[in-house]
Amino acid sequence: MLEIAYCIDGMFLPSMGIGLVLGIISRFVHARRMRRISRGIASVLFFLPQALVLYLGIYLSTLRMYQQGLLCLWGLSVGIVAMVQLISVPRLTKVGSQFLLALGATAMVALGIYSGRNTIGDYVLKHDTIAGTVDGVIESPPLPGSYQVIINHRPYNITFDLTTHLRNGDYIHAEVGIASNMIVSIRH
Fold first, then answer.
1. In what order do the strands lie in the sheet with 154-158?
2. What is the C-alpha separation between 30 and 164, in angstroms, rounded?
3. Dihedral of the alpha carbons of 63, 66, 67, 73, in degrees to the nearest 10
4. What is the mean pLDDT of residues 120-141?
């Protein structure tokens, strides 16, 4: 799975860029069939890597950065659109529909804010630096599919690619993101 994550990491930004450019260019194509084909290819190149990054974010530290950024953008976008829909559309037929839309919009905005906080705190702001001995790696912590490493008797979140370089008893220097306590790089 790690090889797939490395492959997706190398293709993510170019694929999204090509998909975006192809989608914009397709607006100027006059032949209906060619426009439909180019939009289909553009949507696959733009959206498929996003789904893969959302799934593979626990395997590679750079994919986790993309994952948090995507969750921020999609969470805020969908939440704001749902709130605008709730405010601007005349009353929906059922009060339950309004409540569900408001609840979903609030949840998506909260997801966007939380992921944005993680993105900025872990990848933009200055990292904490720790040094110590690896006491163990936990491959099944409370969050399913995530990983933790214990350094100096303290747990830190970590991606799978960084756990492959760790052994019990190793003395390491690590940079930790200040928002989610995630290790973003390791030096032996």
1. 154-158, 147-151, 128-138, 171-176, 183-187
2. 52
3. -170
4. 87
Per the document, the length of the chain is 188
Quickly tell me which residue has 């979140």 as its tokens: 157
26-51 pLDDT, tens digit each: 999 888 899 999 999 999 999 999 99
Please tell me the distance from the alpha carbon of residue 10 to that of residue 7, in angstroms, as a whole number.
Answer: 5
The secondary structure of residue 182, as a DSSP letter, is B
- Token pair recorded at residue 130: 């720790």
80-106 confidence digits (pLDDT tens) = 999 988 888 766 566 667 888 889 999
Specify the amino acid at residue 170: D
Tokens of 171: 């003395």
pLDDT (0 to 100) of residue 38? 92
Predicted model pTM: 0.82
Alpha-helix runs per DSSP H in 89-152: 95-123
Region of 172 (left: φ > 0; alpha: ψ -120 to 50; beta: rest) is beta
Which residues is 151 bridged to in the sheet? 134, 154
Asked whether the beta carbons of 73 and 120 are under 8 A apart, the reply is no
pLDDT band at 142 (very low <50, low <70, confident <90, very high): low
The enclosing H or E element of 43 equals helix 32-56
